[in-house]
Amino acid sequence: MTTPPKPLDPPMVPFALAGIGLWIVAILVMLPLRDELAENGHGSWFGIAVAGALWGIPGLLTMVVHDRNRRRRRQRTSDSFKTGEPTAS
User: Fold this and answer.
1) What are phi and psi of 42, to 5 degrees?
2) Exposed, middle or buried by CB within 10 Å (0-12, 13-18, 19+), for 71?
3) Is 55 domain-assigned?
4) Is 83 domain-assigned?
5) Is residue 1 one of the residues assigned to a domain?
């Protein structure tokens, strides 16, 4: 019988930063086109991009806490393997 693969647990801060970065790129691309977008009925796109970047900040803070706890989980797991004690989930 084979053991199932361990679930992935990558650091999440880079993903949050990449998402915020993509929203900022979208803002910068739309900034010179704002008036043209509004004339064609797409004036809310700029606001959506700004909201995406701003909502990314609480997401980033959440991922910082998640990664900090991830390090603690891994440390606790590696310590239990060294001592042979079971881990509490």
Assistant:
1) -120, 30
2) exposed
3) yes
4) no
5) no
- Is the pLDDT higher at 13 or at 74? 13
26: containing domain: 20-70
Q: Identify which of 43, 42, 45 has the alpha carbon closest to the alpha carbon of residue 26.
A: 45
Checking if the pLDDT of 16 tops 60, the result is yes
Residue-averaged pLDDT of the chain: 89
Write out pLDDT tens, residues 64-75: 999 999 888 888
Instruction: Take residue 61 and report the two structure tokens written for it.
Output: 């803070």
Whole-number Å distance between alpha carbons of 28 and 46:
9
Please list the alpha-helical segments (H only) found in the chain. 13-30, 34-39, 44-83
Domain count across the chain: 1
Residue 61 in domain: yes
